[in-house]
Design brief:
The complex is a heterotetramer of chains A (about 180), B (about 400), C (about 90) and D (about 300). With about 400 residues, chain B is an alpha/beta fold. Chain B has 13 helices and 16 strands. Chain C has two helices and four strands; from the N terminus they run βαββαβ. Chain C has a two-stranded antiparallel sheet. Chain C is elongated, with a radius of gyration of 16 Å. The mean pLDDT of chain C is about 95. The chains are: A alpha/beta (about 180), B alpha/beta (about 400), C alpha+beta (about 90), D alpha/beta (about 300).
Chain lengths: ~180, ~400, ~90, ~300
């Protein structure tokens, strides 16, 4: 079972990102579960969501405490909150940032870090600062836990028409970006 | 993989809304107490889209939500409502009345803590307050079961041997707001399983009758006894409906109870709702370590399965009740009732009761393992796990 | 008689309960000045005043509680309340 | 399994005798007049209260029409559910849905439910039998208890002239919701009552009737005076009878030949007895002022 924790701020589509990941995994033929962090958070407040993906039926319904992967939708959370808590040694961190991975300061250096300028890509392709589909595309490219086809299917499931098409395009762009090692 | 392909990833609330839609309710009434779940929002959208032909009453309070479905049911309609937490408590008076009038309403009780202090998060203190209302109470372990239970609930409620309202407890957020794959039955399948509601009595000028009479001491006890008897009848009906559902839809998640790895278990965890799912995962792990651990799920809290519980767990050495509720000044509610089930029986296992997960505190693997450790050392009448001593004021 | 489902009751069944015993006074219909206005019948809280014939009203004493409204309201004072002798 | 008998109504009344209302009860009379005016094709939801208790003592019932009682404060919501069910089941034309109760059940504890049901526009006839206190439980003050009435929770005493507030203008509040038809009537004016009931029944949407019903026990008057007292309330100006259609007053029952002094209404009632002892003269003036203001506001008398 793979466990993913998504960090972001209210309004950035953290819960939708978790839902998309679960639907993508499901489209790939896997069991999946998405649990939003439960709260009465308002726009801008830090929020989390959790995803589990497995070949077997998933029984555990707790928050994710020892994730294999972190997706950080907002780099300003780093340092301000203990977002790396419990991340497994050698775990992946995917950060929405303009910076290069080596420029991100993380204590202990135990994780594999990747960055993608998801907000910039979102503004360019979607004309809205919602980075979640781009990060999901990048996550697929980086980890292979979900496929690009799965991600696209999840986007079509969740959105429709022009919005779906643009989000697919953005996700694919990010997928290729991390695959190309750019 | 084939199993997965037949399912669709839905939010728990959405799954329930789909199930309710498939049951073709005539009247829905709900109040959006903050934070209501998405169940009634989804149903409202279905009505707005013409996918569900029902009257949708946007009442001004939870008390009126319950009252409106009461009235609708009395007029011969299939009626549904959903609520949670404080809103549930506001309904409470009406819930007693609905059961007493023998009206087979189905209610989703999204389980959340109650004030004070204010919380929006999960536990099951709210619907356990309705313990004595006469409602049949079923608790769902996961979103598939929540969905399936609603289809079964109408059938149980409307069975003429029962004719009682049915409440489905469903953990707030943990189930209602989580996305997971569920299998949706077709309308044809549900129509075959659940025929239209045929009331014994209903309000119509074609056959006038008086409902909701007042009684004197010469009748009241008998009237309450008849309600109690209807609850007893529900035992059989719940089992029958669960079996019939299994035959029709291929899914079974228990009837009054469900057991997991209990056959040879020395230690058995007992719980209700989504916590059962976690306990299954932990029992699996412990089994791999060679520990003989099993899980008992209480699926029907009312009628309470006294005999079934005793049969299922009297072979164990230690029984550990984990519950997200507390009868303040006594013990956890479930632990009380399980102790009552064993009174006067032979081969009584040791029993510990733990209160966990109040107000949305996550019940982690560590929480459960701590409970296991403590229960092995000694018996606990009512111990709160995961209490933070730094937060406790000495009184 | 058995407890019915949910305690339902048959329509109009309260007429089995004869409330005439409550009476201290009974209405005597004099049948002298009656104009056939029907006000006594209309305003009886029990609805137990019958019209046998034109200008011929009477109370069903099985139910009449003896409130005296009919006598009070009769515009031609053709009803008198008399003490019940029991 | 269960046989519920169907019977021919007694004396053509849809409200049968044998009920246990007090002798001279204005509410039982009004309930009978209302039902007879509506006819048999109704479904009634009734709040807890005197009317409910004296008419539905298991296994007996005085109701010849389909009737349900649920609780004290939820009757408009129960009726909402009934109305919605009839709609959903295609039985809309089957019955007029009536929600009725006392002043406590509708104007106090059930006021939220009443407001909600009216605001939602249900096709329901709401009826408040206004006997001006909680009579079922022993004459406690309600929001519709008049100024200076002595009740068990607003008793007159050495330092009190009884209820310190005047009646809540519940009909006007309902009219402000946008209800198409609101009317106040009285059991003392049975023709007015019957006309308003029938008029209300012919209007689609929420309609509201407030009916003044004297209570010999709670008000402390002779059982024979129920109708007289009800008329005096109107003739003094203390209980104006009017109709409001779409928020506007469209008719009032005029006082003829001229307004009676409030003392004529107050004196026969024990609940106002304390106002006729020395020292209460100012109170009587205040009550006369309430009546005068009503006469002015509703144009009850142009002399």
């Amino acid at each position: 079972m793979k466990e993913i924790r998504i960090h972001g701020r209210g309004g950035q589509g953290v819960v939708t990102a978790a839902e998309l990941l679960a639907i993508a995994a499901h489209a790939d033929g896997k069991y999946a579960q998405a649990i939003p962090s439960f709260g009465s958070e308002r726009m801008g407040a830090p929020v989390q969501a959790f995803v589990r993906i497995s070949e077997e039926k998933i029984l555990m319904r707790t928050h994710v405490y020892n994730p294999d992967f972190l997706i950080v939708q907002d780099a300003t959370l780093i340092g301000a909150y203990d977002i790396f808590s419990g991340l497994k040694d050698g775990g992946y961190v995917l950060i929405n940032s303009e910076k290069k991975p080596e420029e991100i300061k993380i204590e202990g250096n135990r994780f594999r870090v990747a960055t993608v300028p998801a907000t910039r890509i979102a503004l360019e392709i979607l004309q809205r600062p919602i980075p979640n589909t781009i990060l999901i595309g990048a996550f697929a490219g980086l980890t292979g836990v979900v496929t690009l086809e799965g991600v696209k299917e999840s986007i079509r499931h969740r959105f429709s028409g022009e919005i779906a098409r643009k989000n697919e395009e953005a996700a694919e762009y990010a997928y290729k970006l991390v695959k190309g090692g750019q | 993989m084939d199993q997965v392909r037949k399912t669709v990833v839905l939010e728990g609330s959405r799954g329930v809304a789909e199930a309710v839609r498939l049951c073709r309710p005539n009247v829905i009434a709900a109040y959006p107490i903050t934070p209501q779940t998405h169940i009634v929002e989804n149903l409202s959208q279905m009505v707005a889209d013409g996918l569900l032909k029902a009257e949708n009453i946007r009442v001004e309070s939870e008390h009126s939500a319950a009252s409106a479905v009461l009235g609708a049911s009395a007029a011969g309609a299939r009626a549904y409502t959903a609520t949670t937490s404080q809103g549930f408590l506001l309904m409470l008076e009406v819930l007693y009345n609905m059961a007493g009038l023998r009206l087979p309403v189905v209610l989703t009780a999204v389980n959340r803590g109650i004030s004070a202090p204010l919380t929006i998060h999960n536990d099951i203190q709210d619907s356990l307050a309705a313990r004595d209302t006469g409602f049949v109470q079923l608790y769902a372990e996961d979103n598939q079961e929540a969905l399936d239970m609603h289809i079964q609930a109408f059938k149980i409620a409307e069975d003429h041997r029962v004719l009682l309202p049915v409440l489905i407890g469903m953990d707030g957020f943990i189930l209602t707001h989580s996305f997971e794959p569920v299998s949706l039955p077709t309308q044809e399948e549900v129509d075959e399983f659940l025929p239209p509601y045929k009331p014994v009595f209903y309000l119509t000028p074609k056959a006038p009758l008086t409902m909701g009479t007042k009684t004197d001491p010469e009748f009241y006890t008998e009237a309450r006894y008849m309600l109690h008897k209807a609850q007893q009848n529900a035992r059989q009906v719940i089992v029958e409906v669960a079996q019939e559902f299994k035959e029709k839809f291929g899914r079974f998640s228990g009837d009054l109870i469900d057991t997991y790895l209990t056959e040879d278990a020395e230690i058995i965890f007992v719980s209700m709702g989504s916590l059962v799912s976690n306990l299954r995962a932990i029992a699996q792990e412990l089994r791999q370590e060679g520990k003989k651990v099993g899980v008992l799920k209480i699926r029907a809290f009312r009628p309470f399965p006294f005999e079934e519980i005793v049969r299922a767990i009297s072979g164990a050495k230690i029984v550990i009740v984990m519950e997200k509720d507390i009868s303040l000044g006594a013990t956890g509610v479930l632990a009380q009732e399980i102790r009552a089930a064993f009174y006067g029986k032979a081969n009584v296992p040791r029993l510990s009761g733990f209160v966990v997960g109040l107000g949305g505190r996550d019940v982690t693997r560590e929480t459960v393992l701590k409970g296991l450790r403590l229960a092995q050392e000694s018996d606990h009448l009512c111990t709160f796990l995961d209490l933070n001593p730094e937060l406790l004021e000495e009184v | 008689m058995k407890i019915t489902l949910g305690g339902v009751a048959a329509p109009g069944s309260s007429r089995l309960n004869k409330t005439g015993g409550w009476r201290v006074f009974y209405p005597e219909f004099l049948h002298i000045r009656c104009t056939d206005c029907g006000l006594c019948q209309k305003l009886c809280p029990e609805g137990c005043i019958f019209k046998a014939d034109k200008k011929n009203f009477y109370a069903d004493l099985e139910y009449c509680k003896g409130c005296g409204i009919c006598a009070e309201e009769c515009p031609v004072h053709d009803i008198e309340m008399r003490p019940e002798v029991r | 399994m269960y046989q519920i008998g169907v019977s021919q109504p007694y004396n053509n009344n849809l409200f049968a005798p044998g009920h246990t209302a007090c002798a001279g009860c204005g509410q039982s009379l009004a309930a009978r007049l209302v039902l007879n005016a509506l006819g048999p094709n109704v479904i009634v939801a009734n709040a807890t209260g005197c009317l409910e208790v004296f008419s539905s003592n298991f296994p007996q019932s005085s109701w010849e029409v389909p009737w349900i009682h649920s609780l004290f404060e939820n009757t408009p919501a129960v009726a909402s559910g009934i109305e919605a069910a009839l709609k959903a089941l295609g039985r809309e034309d089957e019955a007029i849905v009536v929600a009725q109760g006392g002043d406590g059940g509708f104007a106090d504890i059930g006021f939220g439910a009443l407001s909600g049901a009216i605001e939602r526009g249900h096709n329901i006839l709401f009826i408040v039998y206004d006997n001006e206190a909680y009579m079922n439980t022993g004459v406690q003050r309600s929001g519709l208890t008049p100024f200076d009435a002595s009740t068990t929770t607003s008793p007159a005493g050495g330092c009190s002239f009884g209820n310190p507030t005047d009646k809540k203008p519940v009909a006007q509040i309902v009219a402000a919701h946008g209800a198409p038809y609101v009317a106040v009537t009285s059991v003392g004016y049975y023709r007015d009552l019957e006309r308003k009931v029938q008029k209300a029944a012919g209007i689609k949407g929420p309609k509201f009737l407030q009916i003044h019903v004297p209570c010999p026990l709670g008000w402390g008057h002779d059982t024979s005076l129920t109708i007289k007292i009800a008329r005096l309330a109107v003739q003094t100006g203390l209980y104006p009878l009017f109709e409001m259609e779409n928020g506007e007053i469209t008719s009032v029952v005029k006082i003829t030949p001229k307004p009676r002094p409030v003392e004529d209404y107050l004196k026969p009632q024990a609940r106002f007895r304390h106002l006729f002892k020395p020292g209460a003269e100012e109170e009587l003036k205040k009550i006369q002022a309430i009546a005068d203001e009503n006469i002015r506001r509703y144009k009850l008398y142009e002399g």
